[in-house]
Design brief:
Arc Repressor Mutant, subunit A, 63% helix, 207 residues, mainly alpha, Rna Polymerase Sigma Factor, Chain: A
Length: 207
């Protein structure tokens, strides 16, 4: 983290090599987020390029009130939202559905066996999972991507999306529940090994 902070400070001072290092550090993660969010490689490439253009333009104003990772993920989410809005205005079929009104109360998190990262471990089910994520309402899609694909903490997600911790948890619960229904409908959830939890990482039950 210290090395990243040093790169940020050098880049803010106009060091092009430092900025290039930051791009190298985040380009695959930002592209992955955009691809899961938008479901299209060309759109994801456009979005990633726009993210780093915005980082370049506004880095001088970054005051380190949050971590650089939180800042760049917030930019990435906003770029993806903007792109979906532009496509909607062009009368293209939007990927998102109308999201429900979320309330600020906690729901019990669904069985971790159905969490997306458990499905993602199986290579043959990755495309099914990505397709299912694209069916989710847009707000649920982005929170699933941040938590279960990008692996961000609840606190980081709350900071990126400007949400309270309880709201983050309740939205993840709803998103996982809806994703589970989609996977059950496609018949692919039965292919999972439900008796062995994934190794590593923190269980949501302990957070």
């Amino acid at each position: 983290m210290h090395g990243e902070q040093e790169l940020v400070r050098r880049a803010r001072a106009g060091d092009q090599d430092a900025f290039s290092s930051l791009v190298s550090l985040y380009e695959s993660r930002i592209y992955s987020l955009a691809l899961r969010y938008l479901g299209n490689r060309d759109d994801a490439q456009d979005a990633a390029q726009e993210v780093f253009l915005r980082v370049f333009r506004f880095l001088s104003g970054f005051q380190e009130e949050s971590s650089f990772s939180t800042w760049i993920y917030r930019i990435a989410v906003n770029v993806c939202k903007d792109l979906l809005m532009q496509k909607s205005r062009r009368a293209e079929q939007p990927l998102e559905q109308q999201d429900e009104n979320d309330e600020d109360y906690e729901l019990p998190l669904p069985d971790e066996r159905y969490a997306p990262e458990k499905v993602f471990e199986s290579a043959q089910l990755r495309k099914t999972l990505c397709d299912a994520i694209l069916v989710l309402p847009e707000a649920q899609r982005r929170i699933i991507i941040l938590r279960d694909i990008q692996g961000l903490s609840y606190d980081e997600i709350g900071e990126i999306l400007s949400l309270e911790l309880g709201t983050v948890k309740s939205r993840i619960a709803r998103a996982r529940g809806n994703l589970r229904k989609i996977l059950l409908q496609t018949g692919n959830i039965s292919s999972l090994s439900l008796s062995n939890p994934a190794k590593g990482g923190k269980s949501d039950a302990n957070l």
